[in-house]
Structures are given as C-alpha cells and as structure tokens.
Design goal:
The protein is mainly beta and about 350 residues long. It has helices at about 1-20, 240-245, 255, 305-310, 325-335, and strands spanning about 35, 50-55, 55-60, 65, 85-90, 95-100, 105-110, 110-120, 125-135, 140-150, 155-165, 175-180, 190-195, 200-210, 215-220, 225-230, 265, 275-280, 290-300. It has five helices and 19 strands. The radius of gyration is 20 Å and the shape is globular.
Length: about 350
C-alpha cells in the first residue's frame, strides 16, 4: 500500500513539475530589479523574498533584510549598493583586475547588466538571471549570476558562470568569488560558525546572538569551494590577521592576491562586524562556474551546524496556498532529513555593532 502511495505521489509531483516549468521572457536591457516571492518574507511562515539586480541580492525574511544595509534593495543602476559581490578576479601579463570586487588597488565595477526572470507558483518560486558585462572589444568580460528559489524553502541556490574573457586576458588565470556583508535578521549582532554538519554538509556563516536563526553558505554536490567567515572587509581590504579573517591577509584582501579563502572562521571572540563568502579554484580556462546554496533558516532549540541540515526538511510545516511540487516531496521525506540533528561541533565568535 505504501509503495502504491509513493508511486502515486511521484506521478502527481511529475505532473505538477511539468505544469510549473518556467518560461523565460526576453532579456530586459538595461536590467531591472527582479523579485521572487514579492509578497513573502514578512513573517517566519511565508518563505524568503529575494530581490535581484546587477548581480546583487537582498533577502527579506520575517520582516527584515538579511544583508547590509537591511532596508536597502539592489539597484538596477548602481553595482554593489547592498554589499554583496559576484567577482571575477584576473591575473594576466603582469597585471591584475578585480571585476566586481568591493574595493582594491585594481578594483573595477561591472559596467552593465541585462536581466531575465521566470516565476512559478503564483510568483512565489522561480529563477532570475543577471547577465553581467565589463569592458568591450578585446577587454570584454561576461558572466551570468543566477538565483533559483522554491517556496517556502529557507534557502536558495546561487550560480556564477564566467561566460567569456576577452583576448586581453589570454594566458592569465582567474578565480570566481562571492562574498557579503552580513546583517542577520536586521541586526548587526551575531556569532560566526563553520564546518561540517551532522549530515555531512560543509557550511559557513553567522548565527543570531540568541541562537534563533542562521545565515550561511552551504556546499552543494559537485563543488569544492573555499570559504571564510570573518570581518566583512577581509576579501578586499587589509592587512588583517587570523584574528579577523581566519588567516593572515595582506593589503587589499584575499581577492587582490587571487588567494583562496582559508576555510576557517576568524579567531577573535570580541564583537565584530562580520561577513562570509566563497571562491572557486584558480583556473586558466576560458569559462568557469561555481554554485552554492545560501541558507536563511530558523534554529529552534538547535545549534547552527545541525540547523543547516534541518533547513532541508522543515519547509512542509509552512503554510502553502499554491501549487508547489517541493512541498509534496518534503512531506514524504522531511522526517528523514532531520535525522542526526542532536550532534554538533561549532566554533563561534561575536561581532561588533556596525
């Protein structure tokens, strides 16, 4: 009987997925602010509201913005105004260029973008793509920044694809980076953590001072990204020591040296204004890609590492008023996703007021 139920569920889910397949409109040029779940993010029970423009994101959750500044939305005309950055760091012919970094000796901003979006489930789920460009002719660099979210999950996927490099950069090398200035739950106070969850997931980020929620990167299958959780300027400023960044970093931060993040949190236990980020391997290929999940999850009576596992299995408890295949799947397997949540090993530190 149970097998028949699962078979029926699988058929039903497949039917829903077939109906809900997104259809992208023609790219908007110049790009515009796109929003997934525009009426959500106002309480703990209506998922995440995700605003995307110019390769930048803001996450609305439980009535508060999650990245600095919490009251600000990404701008379609100004790159980096919410302080999270998709970056292509280049080293070529004795020169360097940090395309999209916050600031450094060789920092340049992305010049422009076009945008596409495809929403399903009454606008509560979907995908947004920002096509980023820098330079022109032989200096042209293009990259795609893609956000994918399924309501009412407490996480979404981020993908950064290096599409093309102009001939000026031939023979050089590069890394892809993404990093953010955290503003957890609309508050600048919190702790940092990183490591492996009981379920075997690599995660790193921050959690609220009262332990109620986390904001974190999570590794996904097929990826081997480096990470840091420390002072928010570590990727692009310095010099700093392991106290702030988890490892010593020279002037202009990790990106200027095309260095990998240290896969450790900062060692200081004093309050600090913190952030977190990830990077790909050093590469000389003409194209490249990295993808990861960002978690913004409740941690009720749960420590940060097992909380990251729990974010996969608790979505079915949230109210659902539309068609959503992910919710049906979660009802069937949610209990299994919660196994092992009682185990935790976590390193933490405080952060100061901004």
């Amino acid at each position: 009987m149970f097998k028949k139920f699962l078979a029926g569920l699988a058929i039903g889910v497949a039917s829903v997925v077939a109906v809900a397949t997104p259809s992208f409109a023609a790219p908007t040029s110049p790009g515009v602010l796109s929003t997934i779940n525009s009426t959500g993010g106002t309480s703990a029970s209506d998922g995440l509201k995700i605003d995307v423009a110019f390769g930048n994101i803001q996450i609305g959750r439980n009535g508060a913005g999650q990245l600095y500044s919490d009251t600000r939305l990404p701008s379609a005309g100004t790159y980096g105004n919410v302080k999270n950055f998709p970056v292509v760091a280049l080293s070529y012919g004795g020169s360097k260029k940090m395309i999209g970094s916050r600031s450094s000796a060789n920092f340049v901003s992305w010049d422009s973008f076009t945008s596409e979006s495809a929403l399903t489930d009454s606008g509560r789920s979907g995908t947004v793509i920002n096509h980023l460009t820098y330079g022109s002719g032989t200096s042209l660099v293009t990259a795609d920044f893609t956000i994918t979210y399924t309501y009412p999950q407490q996480y979404f996927n981020v993908k950064l694809d290096l599409i093309s490099l102009g001939s000026d950069y031939s023979g050089g090398s590069h890394r892809l980076y993404w990093f953010a200035d955290s503003y957890l739950g609309g508050s600048d106070e919190g702790f940092e953590f990183g490591g492996t969850t009981p379920g075997g997931q690599t995660v790193a980020g921050v959690y609220a001072a009262d332990g109620s929620l986390i904001e974190a990167f999570r590794q996904v299958a097929g990826q081997n990204l480096d990470w840091f959780a420390g002072y928010y300027e570590c990727p692009y400023d310095g010099p700093y020591t392991a106290v702030d960044c988890g490892a010593t970093v020279a002037a202009n931060g990790f990106t200027e040296a095309l260095s990998a993040f240290p896969n450790t949190i900062a060692t200081d236990t004093d309050e600090l204004d913190n952030g977190f980020g990830v990077n790909s391997a050093l590469s000389s290929a003409a194209t490249d890609s990295m993808t990861f999940d960002l978690l913004f999850a409740d941690c009720v009576a749960t420590s940060p590492l097992p909380c990251a596992d729990g974010a996969l299995g608790t979505e079915a408890a949230l109210p659902d008023t539309g068609v959503n295949a992910a919710t049906a799947i979660s009802l069937a397997v949610g209990a299994l996703a919660l196994v092992g949540l009682g185990v935790t090993l976590v390193l933490v530190r405080r952060r100061k007021q901004a």
